[in-house]
Structures are given as C-alpha cells and as structure tokens.
Amino acid sequence: MGFIKTLFIFCFVFVLNVPFQNEEVILWYKSRKLTWKDFKGAPENTRAAAVTASGLTYEFSTTKKNNQVVDIDFTVSSHFYPSKSWYRPEVCDTVILGHEQLHFDITEVYARKFIKLLKAKKFSNNVKNEVKQIYNTINSELNDFQNLYDSETNFSRNREAQLAWELKVKKLLE
Q1: Domain total in the chain
Q2: Do you know which Pfam families this protein is assigned to (predicted)?
Q3: Who has greater pLDDT, 121 or 19?
C-alpha cells in the first residue's frame, strides 16, 4: 500500500483542433462516464498510474453579405482519446478513475467557455485568425487549470481537495 501512495498520478492533456483521421474518440456527455476499458493506450512510464488524453476540437462556418461577416456558426467538442490514454491496472482504483474523469470534465468546462467567448466576439473578415487566437487562449487556460487541479489534489491523493474540485467542476458544468 505504501508503494501506491508514493506513485505519481498525472494526466496528460492533448489539446487539438483537428482530430487525427480514423482515431477513435469519445465525445463528452454528462451521462457518459469513463471506464478503465476506455483507456486503450500502453503505459509509457512507471511514475504515473494513469494518463488521460483529452482536448477540444472546433469547426466553424461563416456567412458573408457585401463582403462582411454577418453570421458565424460554431461547433466545439470535448474529446477523449482512448489510444493515447492509459492506466496501470495494478495500481489503479475508482478514486484514480474519478480523478481522470474530472480531467475530461474540465476539458468540457473549457469547451463551454470557448463557445461563450466565440458567441460574444464581434468578428471582422479575419475570422479564421481571430478564432484561432481565442482557441489558443482557451488552450493555455485549460492547461493551467488542469495543472492547478493536479497540484491542489496532489494527483488525487489529497482526498479533501479532490472532493472540493469535484464540487467546483460540477458547479461549472451546471
């Protein structure tokens, strides 16, 4: 048991705007929780118990009138990448799975934040670059938030902090 307590449990977050062709992805849904069967990658080290690869993708289309953008439609999704996510069954349990799920949930929080920023933005004819700039900002914030989560929960080992983060993220998703 002492060995398990000293393991580093960390999550690696892929943040991509274009999914790999033919790569399996799991879209985030409130009712669909991750299971260990979703983690199909091979463990890459012995320091981590599990790794979650998740990220945001987006698509958009514009309507122009008189060479001016008059409408823009967005699709933003949170993805989990099974082939890039892995775990070591000999050291993982439901607590660690819950920690990994929350990383995916945090990705969804930032997908929603991205959508909110896109809807509030008044775009010029340089929409592509403006969307990419917002996306890059969101990715940076997402990465910082994921790192803060791991730091404050000590990779799920701080149970009190883990429970506080679960409540925090639940409220953000309401």
Answers
A1: 1
A2: DUF922
A3: 121
What are the pLDDT digits (tens) for 126-150?
Answer: 999 999 999 999 999 999 999 999 9
User: What is the separation of C-alpha 139 from the centre of its chain, rounded to a whole number of angstroms?
Assistant: 9
CA separation, residue 138 to residues 7, 77, 91, 145 (Å): 30, 13, 33, 10
User: Which tokens belong to 118?
Assistant: 């896109």
pLDDT band at 21 (very low <50, low <70, confident <90, very high): low
**pTM confidence score:** 0.87
Q: How far is the C-alpha of 57 from the C-alpha of 79, rounded, in Å?
A: 7
- Kindly give, in sequence order, each residue whose CB lies less than 8 Å from that of residue 114, ignoring residues fewer than 6 positions away: 56, 58, 76, 134, 135, 138
Q: Which of 49, 55, 59 is nearest to 26 (CA)?
A: 55
User: What's the CA gap between 25 and 82, in Å, rounded?
Assistant: 7
Nearest to 87 by CA among 53, 116, 111: 53
Domain range for 106 = 2-172
